Amino acid sequence: MSVASARRGYRLLRRGRLGEAGRIYLLTTVTHRRQPLFSRWHLAAAASRALGGPGSWCDARLLCWVLMPDHWHGLVELGGGESLAASMQRAKGRSARAVNAVRGGSGPVWAPGFHDRALRREEALLDAARYIVANPVRAGLVRRVGDYPFWDAVWLPGGGSRG
């Protein structure tokens, strides 16, 4: 199978997918051309403030997230007001504008699209949250999760305010 036909098949599978209100999704998006844009602290801080901010998610609820140098993972509980794609598009758009304002330019920050996986059980939620926050440790960026500045989880005291 060619790369082009695989891409067409993937788009066909995704067509019309709206997400289910109340369901929790593990979301992943990557930077444009997988550039390690967020290895620069000031850009990562700007993106984190935008991605972690309540205005980025409207009636969806961001439960947990981490911003890595070239990608972002998050756990989002979808509200009933809009599709998963619309929620993600807003968050990516807000963060791209914030990053471009800091770097004094314009241009793509994120690659088109995103990956999502619906979680099915409560245990899966905890496993996914652990996977997300441990990303910087697995990548060798820090020794302990708490040493990495660009993540948050609602289960922490004051959760939802890091970044």
UniProtKB/TrEMBL annotation:
PANTHER family tied to this protein: REP-ASSOCIATED TYROSINE TRANSPOSASE
Molecular function in Gene Ontology: sequence-specific DNA binding; transposase activity
GO BP annotations, alphabetical order: DNA transposition
Coiled coil feature spans: none
Species classification: Bacteria, Pseudomonadati, Pseudomonadota, Gammaproteobacteria, Lysobacterales
Entry-linked SMART domains: Y1_Tnp
Protein name: Transposase
Pfam family for this entry, one: Y1_Tnp
Alphabetical list of InterPro entries matching this protein: RAYT_transposase, Transposase_17, Transposase_17_sf
Segments forming domain Transposase IS200-like: 20-135
Taxonomy, superkingdom: Bacteria
